[in-house]
Every structure is written in C-alpha cells, then in structure tokens.
Design brief:
Porin, 14-stranded antiparallel beta barrel, 14 strands, globular, disordered C terminus
Length: 303
C-alpha cells in the first residue's frame, strides 16, 4: 500500500473504515468503546447510550488534508425521556473524498437504542444506512472494479451493530462491540469485532481497546488503541491517544482539547500518522446539552 505520486494516501487510509469520529473519539485515537456515552456511544458502542442520563445535540466536521476528505454531521442522543433509562440516538453525516481523484462521496445515517439490564450491565443495538458512489478513476484506471459505476451508487444498504458494557464498579467498564455484523461483504462496510477496558475517576480516565477487522484486508487485521483524558479546572478536557493499525502498517498519535459546561461544549482534535502513509485528521465539534443530569468522570460529558 503506497501513496500516489501526488502525495495522496491510498483511498482506504482517508476512508478510515467509514468511522465517523467526534473530537473525543479522534483525540482518544478511537479508544472509547468502554467509557463512551452520549453521541460518542452512537458511533462506537450503542450500549453506552444509557450509561449516563443525558440529552445532547452535537455537530461535527472532519478534515483530512492529505486525503482530501471532508465530513460534516449532526447527532442527538437522549436517555432522559424514559423512566426506564432506555437510551436512543440518531446521526447523519455527508462525506466527500479526493474529488480530483477517486471522487468518492457518501451519506451515512445511524440510529441506535440501548437498555440497562441493571446498574452494571448495559446492552444496545444500532443500525446504519450507507449510500456511496465513486465517480473518479481508481488505481486501475477506468473500470468497474477500480472506479465503480460513474453516477451510480455502488453501495446502498443497511448494516447492524451490537454492543454490551459491564461495569463491575463505578470506575471500571469492560465492553465488547460488533460492527456491520450482517456481513455485507464489501470493504466499505467492514465487519469487525472489538472491545475495550476503561478506568475513569472524577477528573481523569484511561482506556485500552482492541479491534479485529475481518473484511478490509486480505486477512483478518487488528487495530490496537489507547487513550487518556484529564479534566482541568472542571471545564477543559485534555486528551491524547495512540493507535497501531496492522492492516495499514501504521502508527498514529492524537491529541485534543476543548471547553465544556452544563449547557455547551466546543472541542478540537488532531490525529497524525507518524509511521506509515502520512495522513492527518482534524476534527471539530460543538454540542448543546439540553440535560446532563447524571454524569461522573468515566461517564464524561462527551467532553
């Protein structure tokens, strides 16, 4: 896997497994499956939408300079409206990649629901709808295999996710998540299974995740992620993370910060591949907190 002559990384690097990332996800380098909540849970582990009682609205923007990718989205998660603490969420993003090359664009719509079977066990399911087309030439030139069908959608369908989180204590969380479990059989919707272990106290948290991707590469590949965050002066989250991608043979570092209060949040995060095909992701996010009634650290206010 090599970058093109113009310096653009391979398409799969910028596509990033169709991961939709908020600033917190990027800053933690995707190590949020155990300690996510609110809109992060919608995109990473639907079980965690009911871990904390929140009603949040958010908007995000992803910019990948080398890959010429841009993504813009909105999301909402509510676990306040039900006395049973059932959580639900919906999100949508519009994405473009390398408009002067492969010229790929897609719409990603997601929804999910979660239920707390007890104060220690949470389970959730999610559904995704992806509609994608590619109008430019791929690495093999003009062909159906390399370029898709110009003007037509080459992917248009639903996939399903499922997750579970076990909290033996308020500070410790252990999660397992499966993505695209109906195995659509294409690399735009890769089937993967992973999990994480996180420890969070009032002002800091640490998490380590491992994920196996069964579809994107010619054999099963793993991604190992780790991240941590510290809440400074009750309002300023500072975050950092690391990821090793066995498929892309890359190592990346990430960092982010922001401002949060009970009603509003603004954040930014950056991830940079430091070994492998060079790629940078810059993610901005804004959130409006209609209700954040039962948050503690380890249930961070989606910082």
């Amino acid at each position: 896997m090599n970058a093109r002559a113009d310096g653009t990384p391979p398409p799969e690097v910028g596509y990033n497994y169709n991961a939709i990332e908020t600033p917190r996800i990027t800053a933690m380098n995707d190590a949020v499956r155990a300690l996510s909540n609110s809109t992060e849970a919608l995109f990473t582990n639907p079980a965690n939408m009911s871990v904390a009682r929140v009603y949040h609205l958010s908007a995000l923007a992803q910019v990948w300079p080398e890959s010429h990718r841009q993504s813009y989205g909105i999301a909402a998660v509510d676990s306040v409206g039900s006395s049973a603490r059932v959580g639900g969420g919906i999100g949508a993003t519009y994405n473009t990649q390398d408009t002067n090359g492969i010229n790929r664009n897609w719409t990603d719509i997601r929804g999910g629901i979660s239920y707390p079977f007890s104060d220690q066990l949470f389970m959730g399911v999610g559904v995704r709808y992806l509609r994608l087309r590619q109008n430019g030439e791929g690495p093999l030139g003009t062909s159906v295999a390399s370029s898709g069908l110009s003007g037509e959608y080459i992917v248009s369908g639903f996939t399903f996710d499922a997750g579970a989180t076990f909290k033996p204590s308020d500070a410790l969380a252990i999660s397992v998540v499966g993505m695209n479990l109906n195995n659509p059989g294409n690399t735009f919707q890769p089937t993967s299974v992973g999990g994480g272990i996180g420890f969070g106290k009032e002002s800091f948290s640490l998490e380590a995740d491992l994920l196996a991707d069964f579809t994107t590469w010619d054999s099963t590949k793993v991604r190992a992620m780790g991240g941590g965050e510290f809440l400074l002066a009750d309002h300023f989250p500072l975050r950092a993370g690391y990821r090793y991608d066995d498929g892309a043979k890359s190592h990346s570092l990430s960092a982010g910060f922001g401002y949060i209060d009970t009603t509003f949040g603004a954040e930014i995060a950056v991830r940079r591949v430091v070994s492998g095909d060079p790629a940078t992701a810059i993610v901005f996010g804004f959130s409006y907190h209609l209700d954040s009634g039962s948050l503690t650290q380890g249930e961070n206010e989606s910082f």
